[in-house]
Amino acid sequence: MLDRTSTLFSHVKAGEGDYVSGGLRDFFLYRDLGIAQATHGKVIAHLVKANMPPEEGTGWHRHEADFQIVIMLKGWARFMYEDKETLVEAGDCVHQRPGISHYLFDYSPDMEYLEIVSPADFKSIDVEPVCEIPKPTPWV
């Protein structure tokens, strides 16, 4: 049975909330969607958008999380998921299985995605490189 008492109703309108720096990556901006507060930390949902050109990318890492999806809303991004290059374009949804080693190394200037992760206070752990990373596409 669904427990309706441990979470709160939440509605964040399109114009509410600013994109801010200070998130997981300095070269992205983040807009909180109020889900972490509504779920008492069970889930986080935020919009992420490009802020600076991809110079070094995220580096190889994995997340200590039970669940993570990325839904690309605008533009594109190129990831390495273990040794497989993956182009994620607007409209695509990626489920990152728990513990998968990955590296976001390239993205378009208009890239914007929705990320949903559980728990809200998930950890990002640096890992040893899995393979060589292709060069990012220079922004013009």
TrEMBL record:
CDD domains the UniProt entry points to = cupin_bxe_c0505 (cd06980)
Cupin type-2 domain mapped to chain residues: 51-104
Q: Name one Pfam family in it.
A: Cupin_2
InterPro entries attached here?
Cupin_2 (IPR013096), RmlC-like_jellyroll (IPR014710), RmlC_Cupin_sf (IPR011051)
Q: What is this protein called?
A: Quercetin dioxygenase-like cupin family protein
Q: Lineage, please?
A: Bacteria, Pseudomonadati, Pseudomonadota, Betaproteobacteria, Burkholderiales
